[in-house]
Design brief:
Elements (H helix, E strand, L loop, with lengths): L1 H21 L4 E7 L2 E7 L6 H22 L7 H7 L6 E2 L2 H16 L9 H6 L14 H8 L7 E4 L3 E4 L12 H15 L5 E5 L2 E5 L7 E6 L11 E7 L2 E7 L4 E4 L2 E4 L2 E2 L4 E2 L4 E8 L2 H14 L1 H9 L5 E7 L4 E5 L10
Antiparallel strand pairs: 1-2, 2-6, 3-5, 4-5, 6-7, 7-10, 8-9, 10-15, 11-12, 13-14, 15-16, 16-17
Helix pairs in contact: 2-7, 4-8, 7-8, 8-9
Length: about 350
């Protein structure tokens, strides 16, 4: 009798160990790209060191390609070569670059110019780019001089293969849409290799696909405290599946002069940092590139115009945090509430 019980116990232990070893366990890997970091969690496969290594290599190679196309920090990238041009001759660029510019053009026009990928020289002037930091605002004359060559309508796509500029000093900066594009490209790569349940994040922009074992993917939205550690103080938590999510805010990159705060988010129309009270915008959309661009545009447009625009879009929702004298006010589109964690 004792022998039979021992056999049953041994069988149970072996079954448990076999089940534990074959149960799908999420694995995660991280890296650096686009001047920030990325993080990927895959929840639909067995943990396998060789698989992790090979997947990371594929992701890194893909992101290097995106940087070679659209990184202004790479002097030999496609976008840098275009920015160096001082003539109006067309420059051949990759199909991915063209596709990003096409969506950028749609968002530029729909937002009334609030989203403008040529605003980079103004961002630099205000101390948030390649020209280095500054502690005081530029003069009105400096701002007006740069505004002369700002405007995405100065960029033309030629034959779906080339781009040209109509002002020699006009430049492109796709930082407000390229991270979202990179996230989407990595998500497409994972799907092409058979993965369905994963989360991709680059610099806070996210694609959540499928589910993890415990349910939908949970993503925190930071309370927009200036200089706060990401994830330390949350305004809200959302639960998502199969969506792109992006957040823009005024609380990470700014300077203070004469008790006035100047944000890195520049209004292309005025040439100056936004002053509409919007502290943070989170957008949920069918893909991350769209969410990324719309979040930036709504920061500039303001809550009223921004929400009106969101309502005109299918499958797009937005969560806006307004900074007030008393603290913060939350405003969100009607469909966003279903994503909020209870």
């Amino acid at each position: 009798m004792k022998r039979k019980k021992y056999i049953y116990l041994l069988f149970f232990i072996l079954y448990f160990l076999l089940f534990a070893c074959t149960e799908k366990q999420p694995f995660r890997f991280t890296g650096k790209t686009m001047g920030t970091t990325y993080s990927i969690i895959i929840a639909d496969t067995l943990v396998n060191p060789d698989l992790i290594k090979s997947t990371k290599l594929k992701v890194d190679d893909l992101l290097k390609q995106v940087n070679k196309q659209m990184s202004t920090w790479d002097p030999n990238s496609e976008i840098s070569m275009f920015n160096k041009k001082t003539d109006n001759e067309p420059l051949p660029i990759s199909s991915d670059f063209i596709n990003v510019l096409k969506l950028a053009d749609v968002i530029f026009r729909e937002s009334g110019g609030a989203f403008d990928p040529t605003v980079g020289p103004l961002v630099d002037l205000w101390g948030f780019g390649k020209e280095g930091v500054r502690l005081t605002p530029p003069s009105d004359e400096e701002v007006e001089n740069r505004r002369k060559f700002i405007g995405f309508d100065l960029i033309e796509i030629v034959d779906d293969t080339m781009i040209k500029k109509s002002h020699p000093e006009t430049q492109l900066d796709l930082s407000a849409i390229a991270k979202g594009f990179g996230v989407d490209k990595v998500a497409d790569l994972l799907k092409s290799t058979g993965h369905k349940d994963f989360m991709v994040e680059i610099g806070g922009e996210v694609v959540a696909s499928g589910r993890k074992k415990s349910g939908k993917w949970r993503i925190g939205i930071d309370r927009p405290y200036f200089d706060a550690v990401p994830g330390q103080n949350l305004e809200a938590v959302i639960e998502v599946s199969s969506a792109g999510i992006a957040t823009s805010g005024d609380y990470r990159n700014y300077f203070v002069s004469d008790d006035k705060t100047y944000s890195h988010t520049i209004d292309p129309v005025t040439g100056r940092p936004i002053v509409n009270g919007v502290a943070s915008v989170t957008v949920i959309a069918p893909n991350c590139m769209l969410a990324d661009a719309m979040a930036t545009a709504i920061m500039v447009m303001g809550s009223e115009k921004g929400l009106k625009w969101v309502r005109s879009k299918n499958d797009v929702e937005a969560f806006i945090i307004i900074r007030t004298d008393e603290g913060y006010e939350e405003i969100f589109s009607a469909g966003f509430e279903r994503y909020l964690s209870k």
